[in-house]
C-alpha cells in the first residue's frame, strides 16, 4: 500500500531488537537508514545487512549530548535530509521504590525521556527535517498499567505519551507529525532479562494478561514503519497500543 522509496529515516537503537527490525523494513520498502547505536560491531553488522544502498551508522551514546550533536551536524553538513526519526533505544528497570537509588532513577529518565527529546531538538535546530516528516517514540503498555517495581520505567514511558501530544501541537504548523507506539511484552533480549527476574507466579500472570501471547519485533516494527510513511499522513499526536489486547481487558 506504500513505499519509502528515496526517503531517509534516522533510527536509534538500530543495532538490535525493534530498532534493527525497523531498519530492515525501511530498507525493504526502498528507504535509506541512518542508524544510531551504542554497540559499534552490532551496529555495523546491522547496517551491512540492509537492502539497497546509502545506509550509514553512527556509534553514539544518546545520553552524550556532545556526540549526538556532532553526529547530527555531520548529517547536515553532508546534505542529508530526514523524512522521519524513530527513537527505539531505551533501558528497562525492575526495582522496588525502596531499593531505587537516585542515580538509577535519573539514568532511566535520561535514557528514555531526555535523550529522545534532546535528539529531536538537535535535529530540529540543524533544520534537516523535511516538510511532512514523521517522528515516532517508543512508549510502553506499562505506561497505562499499574505494575509493581516498575515506577521509574513507567514514569519514563508515560512521559513520552504526554510529550507526543505537546510536540505534535508544536510542530503541526511545520507539517511534522509526532506519534508513539506502546507495545506489550515483545520477545527481545531486554524483555527476556526482565522476565527472568520475575517470580514464577508473576510470570504466569504476565503471560495470562497477554491474550495473544508475547509479541515479536516485527509486530512493532511494521506499525512503526507505517507511521513513518506517507500513508499515515493524517495521524498525529497519537499513541498506538501494540499489545495483542493487553490494554483492552
Question: Would you kindly provide a written description of the structure presented here, covering whatever features stand out?
Answer:
With 249 residues, the protein is of the alpha/beta class. 44% of the residues lie in helices and 17% in strands. The chain is built from 8 helices and 7 strands. It has helices at residues 17-28, 40-48, 65-77, 102-126, 151-171, 189-196, 200-208, 217-228, and strands at residues 8-12, 32-37, 56-59, 82-87, 129-138, 177-183, 239-242. The protein has a 7-stranded parallel β-sheet with strand order 3-2-1-4-5-6-7, with helices on both faces. α5 (151-171) links the parallel β5 and β6 (177-183). The longest helix has 25 residues, at 102-126. The chain is globular. The model has no long low-confidence stretch (mean pLDDT 95).
Amino acid at each position: 500500500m506504500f513505499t519509502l522509496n528515496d526517503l531517509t529515516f534516522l533510527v536509534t537503537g538500530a543495532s538490535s531488537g525493534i530498532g534493527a527490525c525497523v531498519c530492515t523494513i525501511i530498507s525493504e520498502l526502498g528507504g535509506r537508514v541512518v542508524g544510531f547505536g551504542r554497540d559499534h560491531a552490532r551496529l555495523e553488522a546491522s547496517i551491512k545487512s540492509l537492502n539497497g544502498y546509502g545506509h550509514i551508522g553512527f556509534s553514539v551514546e544518546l545520553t552524550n549530548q556532545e556526540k549526538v550533536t556532532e553526529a547530527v551536524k555531520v548529517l547536515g553538513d553532508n546534505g542529508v535530509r530526514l523524512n522521519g526519526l524513530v527513537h527505539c533505544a531505551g533501558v528497562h528497570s525492575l526495582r522496588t521504590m525502596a531499593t531505587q537509588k537516585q542515580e538509577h532513577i535519573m539514568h532511566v529518565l535520561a535514557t528514555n525521556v531526555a535523550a529522545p527529546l534532546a535528539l529531536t531538538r538537535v535535529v530540529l535546530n540543524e533544520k534537516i527535517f523535511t516538510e511532512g516528516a514523521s517522528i515516532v517514540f517508543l512508549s510502553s503498555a506499562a505506561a497505562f498499567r499499574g505494575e509493581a517495581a516498575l515506577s521509574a520505567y513507567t514514569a519514563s514511558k508515560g512521559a513520552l505519551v504526554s510529550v507526543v501530544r505537546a510536540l505534535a501541537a508544536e510542530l503541526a504548523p511545520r507539517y511534522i507529525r509526532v506519534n508513539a507506539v506502546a507495545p506489550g511484552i515483545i520477545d527481545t533480549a531486554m524483555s527476556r532479562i526482565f522476565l527472568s527476574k520475575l517470580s514464577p507466579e508473576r510470570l504466569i500472570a504476565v503471560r495470562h494478561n497477554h491474550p495473544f501471547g508475547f509479541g515479536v519485533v516485527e509486530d512493532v516494527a511494521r506499525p512503526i514503519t507505517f507511521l513513518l510513511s506517507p500513508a499515515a499522513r493524517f495521524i498525529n499526536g497519537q499513541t498506538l497500543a501494540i499489545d495483542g489486547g493487553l490494554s483492552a481487558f
